[in-house]
Write a structure and sequence with these properties.
The two termini are about 35 Å apart. The protein is globular. It has about 425 residues and is an alpha/beta fold. Helix 4 crosses helix 5. It is built from 12 helices and 17 strands.
């Protein structure tokens, strides 16, 4: 086996169906706490809708709903910090677009879909015309239908499930999706003949893990490789049984898709089982806190990357790093997703005005091309996928560095039906 400032391109009327397929079931069930603030990263309550009584130009309320507690809390915090920096950049530090104040309220979903839906309904009832956030795929697929039902804009966050692409007219991505991860892995590994070669996907049994299995089956299975999967319970802390199942299948390649605080246990047991020494192991670069988790395994793993902190030098990357330095923060894996979301909010408000006209906001975002932290991004008009660069990375000492940048067209997902 052989494995080694913004612009719009054009404007189109929305062509997406209002819904696409059944909504995936919730994947994570944990207790959640809720908080709100009047500005990104702040404390206290806020209310107000499209015609809010802020400055003379009115105000538009944006509800940020994501995890700041639960297993994906770190992902949510990165997103919120990125959003704060992005809004500061997009509004030149004023918090306004064309005299319209952008009011921001935050809610913690704790990774629980029911909690997220409850928060979204509350915020919409209070006048929010834009919902943004969501670190969990299981949460995102539950929020998307609310956007159409209530005629508001939904800007999905780090949630990577492919089911969000093309799901309805009102839902847009601000981050990458699973298919882009898998195609990046395929491009890194190069062509294979597929004859008798086996790939095992090791993931958690939730919307994110299931989406990765489907994408690997579509991309690598399409090259003739035999694809099987081992899906671990999301709540499992002893991962020896799952990694033993991987070893028993004697794979040529293992594709690992993992999120949350059990990553260290997973990598340790994979290494103990000898899998890292007998198969090509591919995974996505995770957050900074996970870097020590790889330990001695870091030289045995092929890394695809959604983002490598500090490795890009676009004007937006420079602005984010400067803002973070002032705040005492560090950029991380999902910081660009929040920054993108703020840029897209600014473009939407510019088009929708103080009334936050949803149809105008949708039209403005379709085919919107803009420079982001990672490089050039384009919102594909047909299904609202976010076309963006992806990376191959490797560890250089304790920190990862970019080995190769893959252009957006090379890793673009297929258009959703």
């Amino acid at each position: 086996m052989t494995l080694p400032r913004p612009r719009r391109a054009s404007s189109r009327a929305s062509r997406l169906p209002h819904t696409r397929g059944p909504v995936l079931a919730a994947a994570v069930a944990l207790a959640a706490l809720a908080t709100a603030c009047s500005s990104p990263g702040g404390d206290g309550g806020s209310s107000g809708g499209g015609n809010g009584d802020g400055d003379e130009g009115g105000s538009v309320t944006v509800a940020l709903i994501t995890s700041t507690s639960g297993p994906l809390a770190s992902y949510g915090e990165q997103y919120l910090q990125g959003f704060e920096a992005g809004l500061d950049h997009a509004t030149d530090g004023t918090g306004e677009i064309d005299g319209i104040t952008i009011e921001v309220v935050r809610s913690d979903d704790g990774g629980e879909p029911d909690t997220a839906v409850s928060h979204a309904r509350q915020r919409i009832g209070e006048g929010a015309k834009i919902i943004a956030g969501t670190a969990s795929s299981g949460v995102a697929v539950q929020l998307a239908p609310l956007a159409v039902q209530n005629d508001v804009l939904f800007l999905s966050g780090p949630a990577a499930t492919d089911a969000m692409t093309g799901t309805n007219t009102h839902t847009f991505r601000t981050g990458r999706q699973t298919y882009q991860d898998v195609v990046t892995a395929k491009e890194i590994l190069g062509e294979t003949d597929g004859d008798g070669q086996k790939v095992v996907v090791l993931a958690q049994d939730n919307a994110f893990g299931q989406a990765n299995v489907a994408a690997v089956e579509g991309v690598l299975g399409g090259q003739g490789l035999e694809v099987t999967s081992v899906l671990a319970p999301p709540s499992a802390t002893d991962l020896t049984p799952s990694t033993a199942q991987v070893k028993a299948q004697d794979p040529d390649m293992v594709f690992v898709a993992w999120a949350g605080d059990t990553a260290q246990s997973m990598w340790t047991t994979l290494d103990q089982q000898g899998v890292l020494d007998t198969a090509t192991v591919v995974t996505g670069l995770d957050i900074r806190a996970s870097y020590p988790v790889f330990g001695d395994a870091r030289d045995k793993i092929t890394l695809l990357a959604h983002y490598v902190p500090g490795a890009t030098d676009t004007p937006e990357a420079q602005a984010m790093e400067a803002y973070f330095e002032d705040k005492g923060w560090e950029s991380d894996l999902f910081s660009p997703d929040g920054f993108n979301a703020a840029q897209m909010v600014a473009e939407a408000v510019r088009a929708g005005g103080a009334d936050a006209d949803t149809a105008a906001m949708i039209e403005a975002l379709e085919d919107f091309t803009f420079s982001g932290v990672k490089g050039e991004n384009t919102v594909r008009g047909s299904d609202h996928a976010l076309l963006q660069p992806m990376f191959q990375a490797e560890f250089d000492g304790d920190m990862p560095s970019v080995v190769r940048t893959l252009e957006p067209s090379l890793v673009a997902p297929p258009e959703a039906d």
